[in-house]
Amino acid sequence: MNTHSNALDQLGGISTKILESYEIFAKNHHLNGNELAILYALWVYQARTQKQIADEYLIAKQTINTLCKKYEADGIIQSTASDNDKREKILHLTQKGQAFARPIIETLLNQENKIIDEFGTKRMAFLLDEFMQLQQLMAQTLER
After folding, report:
1. In a designed cystine with 61, which of 13, 54, 97, 144 is the match (CB 3.0 to 4.6 A)?
2. Tell me, what's the pLDDT at 1?
3. Alpha carbon distance 48, 117 (integer Å)
């Protein structure tokens, strides 16, 4: 058995460390990573379904549902029935939710932009392109 990790193992480890940095950011703002993901999605995209958030951030739908119920009870988010499917709820931040999320998400976005600037926009564009190609190859190979 090979005791050395391959490049994909190493990439997975780096990705996990990146996610850990978001978890620490969330904890520093008295949230967990899943709560941060919900606030981030609703701040950046303004409206999302629970399914969209679950799929985009790879969070269990039940976890999203539980947190959204909590946020709705706290007046942070509101939900409206989708025009396309009345069973599906479209989530939005309330005014209270915007006031709650603003200092957290604006800080995060500013820090992300600082990271991109320090890393370099050209390097970031190159990295994104490479990751997209790698992801496509992995999907073609592993998801058959």
Report:
1. 54
2. 52
3. 28
Report the candidate in 87, 91, 88, 85 with the shortest Cα–Cα distance to residue 67.
Answer: 91
Rounded distance between C-alpha atoms, residue 30 and residue 63, angstroms: 18
pTM surpassing 0.85?
yes
Find all residues with CB under 8 Å of 83, minimum gap 6, and list them: none
**d(C-alpha 59, C-alpha 49), whole Å:** 13
pLDDT along the chain (144 residues), means of 10: 76 94 98 97 96 95 95 96 82 98 98 97 97 95 90
- Which residue, 103, 86, 87, 105, is CA-closest to 46? 105
Surface-to-core class of residue 85, CB atoms within 10 Å of its CB (0-12 exposed, 13-18 middle, 19+ buried): exposed
CA distance 67 to 3: 40
Counted residue by residue, the chain has a size of 144
For residue 44, give Cα distances in angstroms to 7, 35, 38, 102: 33, 14, 10, 11
